[in-house]
Write a structure and sequence with these properties.
Elements: H1 20-45, H2 51-59, H3 63-77, H4 82-98
Helix pairs in contact: 1-2, 1-3, 1-4, 3-4
Length: 111
C-alpha cells in the first residue's frame, strides 16, 4: 500500500505587487499627471474669474479628467496677450506628452 500524500501548490503572497518595472511605470505616469495638472493651474493663474475651472482642475484624479477640461481652459485663456500665448503653448506641450496620438493627422510633417 502506498502512503497518500497530498501536495498543494505554494501560495503566492505577491499578488498585486507587480514587478519593479511596473512600479516605476506607475510612478512615471503619476509624475506626468501631476506635471500636467500644474500646467493647467499655471495657465489659469492669470485668468480672472476662472475659480470654477481651478476647482475642477484640482479635483481631477485622472489625466482624462484634464483632457475633458482642455476646451474650457483654452477658451478662458483666449488669445489675449503674449503671456496667454505662452501658457497655451505650454499647455499644448503638456497635453501632447500624455496624449501624443490624439492629434489629428494632416498631410504635413515637421522637419
Amino acid at each position: 500500500m502506498q502512503a497518500h500524500t497530498s501536495f498543494s501548490a505554494p501560495r503566492d503572497f505577491t499578488t498585486g505587487s507587480g514587478m519593479p518595472g511596473d512600479r516605476g511605470a506607475r510612478i512615471a505616469a503619476r509624475q506626468a499627471f501631476v506635471s500636467l495638472k500644474r500646467s493647467f493651474l499655471d495657465a489659469l493663474e492669470t485668468v480672472p474669474a476662472a475659480e470654477w475651472l481651478r476647482v475642477q482642475v484640482r479635483a481631477a484624479e485622472e489625466p482624462v479628467d484634464l483632457w475633458l477640461l482642455r476646451a474650457p481652459v483654452f477658451a478662458a485663456l483666449g488669445r489675449m496677450d503674449a503671456d496667454s500665448r505662452i501658457h497655451r503653448q505650454r499647455l499644448h506641450r503638456s497635453l501632447d506628452s500624455i496624449f501624443p496620438d490624439l492629434e489629428t493627422s494632416s498631410g504635413f510633417m515637421p522637419l
